[in-house]
Amino acid sequence: MNNILKNFVYSQNSINTYKSCPLKFKYKYLDKINWRKDDIGSREYYESLQMGSEFHLLCERYFSNIPLGINEKNSLKYTKWMDKIKKLLPIISENKDETIYLPEYEIRYNLNGNTITAKYDLVVINNNKIDIWDWKTENKKVDYKNAQNRIQTIVYMYLAKEVIPKLYNIDVNFEDVTMKYYQPEFEDEPVSISYNEEIHNSYNNRIDQYIQMIRNIELHNVKNDNHCKFCEFNKLCNGQEVEYQLLEEENYEY
Q1: What DSSP string describes the chain?
Q2: pLDDT by residue (tens digit) across 10-37?
């Protein structure tokens, strides 16, 4: 086994990368290749990532009850987005003392000897219920089917049910764990994913299966040709220019 994999910390990003293309996983996580090109074609893509990063920071400040400090650049858009967040999730409420807000919250879990981590944009705990919030500023609209099948959904909901109730000494039913994807650019309401014990058990199996595949070093040179046009390593693998408008932003969560 590759030495890096012996103590590797798995995440939704790394599992999703492997699912997309095992060779891509090898480049990013084993060979440590950080592919970034600074040209006109890529500028809009990286500016979009920066905007997403700024929005995540504003949300973290809001739910930490500290001044937002919105920068002048894109201030109108940020203000509009944050007004939506404040309307959707007002912190000042009758049950404010009972509600716990955990922005940029990271947890780890040991699954069969392998460490998995999840970093949530926001976790809200109230009345023995867990709401997982994820902010999406990508241009592609997220629908229910897409959100339900995301590796991010699988990892985030599974770890939330396994870890958070133990940390906060609360009894949480499977049905009381919900994941919400929110895109301030498109909608006023989030895409909400429900949960139950059957789904939880299936997620356990899927995560374990992906980890076992990743640990099989013989599979790491397998290339998924269908993914190439969505991949930043297209130039490296095929000598073709990267189409940044197709590049997957979800592999670069903040």
Answers
A1: --HHHHT-EE-HHHHHHHHH-HHHHIIIIIS-------SHHHHHHHHHHHHHHHHHHHHHHHHTTS-----STTHHHHHHHHHHHHHHS-S-STTTTT-EEEEEEEEEEEETTEEEEEEEEEEEEETTEEEEEEE---SSPP-HHHHHH-HHHHHHHHHHHHHHHHHHT----GGGEEEEEE-TTT-SS-EEE---HHHHHHHHHHHHHHHHHHH-GGGTT---GGGGGG-TTHHHHHS----TTT--GGGG--
A2: 999 999 999 999 999 999 999 988 765 5
